[in-house]
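Subject: two folds for Thursday's group meeting

Dear M.,

Sorry for the delay on this. The cluster queue was jammed most of the week, so I only got both jobs back this morning. I'm pasting them in the order they finished. Each block is the input sequence followed by the predicted structure tokens. Could you check whether the formatting survives your parser before we put anything on slides? The first protein is the one we discussed after the seminar.
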Amino acid sequence: MSVTIYHNSRCSKSRETLALLQSKSIEPTVVEYLKTPLTHDQISTLIDQLGFSSARDLMRTKETEYKTLNLKDETNETTLINAMVEHPKLIERPIVEHNGKAAIGRPPENVLSVL
């Protein structure tokens, strides 16, 4: 079973989601997206896999970078995705991807729907 988790080890929900997967005997590929930023195409794919209608749905709108970059009123999807490429901290976490589907682990049990 090929499962990927986009993970931030400093985030409690991300750690809980990884532990949940491991408790189900799943050893996912761990992508520490703050150390290895995602590309524009990878983020676009995740948005589609998550079923989101906008890149904003994948963004952490309470982050300082969101306010500093004045993204609240931004309507251009490319600009929003580029902001996440340049500032990966803006990406909601954790994300688990499997078989062309993805889910955000908030709460961690949400990811079980894609396994």
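Second protein, same layout:
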Amino acid sequence: MRRFDRLFFVIALLVGAGCIGFLSARHGWTSDWTRGARASLAPESVAVLRTLEGPVEVVGYISPTGPLREQIAGAMERYLREKKDLSLSFVDPDLDPAASRQLGIGGDGALLVRYQGHEQRVESPINERNLSNALERLARGGERVIAFVTGDGERQADGRANADLGVFMGQVERRGVRAVPLNFSQTRGVPEHTDLVVLASPVAALPAGSVSALVDYVRDGGNLLWLTEPTNDDLGTGPLADVLGIRVLPGVLVDGQGSTLNVQDPRIVVVGDYPFHAITRAFRDTTLFPQVSALAQVSAHDWAVVPFLRSGERSWTAFGGIDNQNASTIAFHPENGELKGPLDFGFALNRLSPNPTRSEQRAVVIGDGDFLSNTFVGNGGNRALGERVIDWLLGDDVLVNLPARGAPDRVIALSQTGLNAITFGFLIALPLILLGLGAGIAWRRRRR
């Protein structure tokens, strides 16, 4: 019996020592209970991190004085939880001002993110959006070049006019993409190492040489984004449509569905439900498309054509114009050849690339370019959809720009009845309850 007691004592002593050793070590456990997991990385950031195979080094050139280092460490802690081989270190830029100037570090400091020999800089504000966009640029493996066809009234990639794409491309260029002009009057064809060519709503007929250069580019395996308009059916782009196996239908697409969202102009097509495609996967934002051309697919082509933008059942291709100055009435006239919806106006095309250096060729044709213009890009999910189109065309299916994430419950909406109830409860009911409890306690003490 005594031997058993001694054995039990030794076992208990060892278990106790082990428990003390375990408790003396630091064991971290994190749980995010915030609404929408706002204290954790967004799924888009996690997806970007998973594309980075290998260590990532983040060096912060931040002064040790002030709270910025602590704030950055807190933001990076979320990334460290998801990627164990990501490292963070800090350098005091005041100790080596010459090196800081050589690196272009300003007075507020910056982060340098390094991955596989490439480097990206993140400057103020240093938040999840900018950090993940820098990681996304590194995941691309280098800068991508998008050539915008110019010379025939196309929308300009760096333009500030209402019809241009300067605002949209300014956002895209922050993610490792560079836009360059492509004028076929100055060059015989598409330059080598061009990742994507964009033909954005020309207003004048394209010269035969320009159309021929675009057709040759597509036949050689180049990726293309073509934004066409209802008035673009007579601009000499027929050979380009033929090589893609699509047709731009006559008329302007009108849709009465927008009236439910207080959109008075029936030429503005409102889309909230999308056919399934990699571009629109899990995309739920509403998009607005002014002045849309419907598209049709031509059979007997080697392209896999998938529609990803479609009008509603109350839509049709209207041949008659709409007066912008005076009230007018429009109606569906099938006897005139007008087609009733739903009608497709966005096609995603892909096939095995004729270019032996590439595995797949991709193209997108959308019957509207206004939705990405400076005037309309900020409406609904227009910008987000445009970025998804660019990512898909560049082959970066999992790379998406991060939306700004804020607290969805910062505003409390109260009716007058609710406000009156809260006022009565805190100013009258609660004091009376506390007074009654105090009186009851005093009465019980007196009875004792």
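Two things I noticed about the second structure. Residues 195 and 394 are 7 Å apart (CA to CA). The chain has a mean pLDDT of 82.

Cheers,
T.
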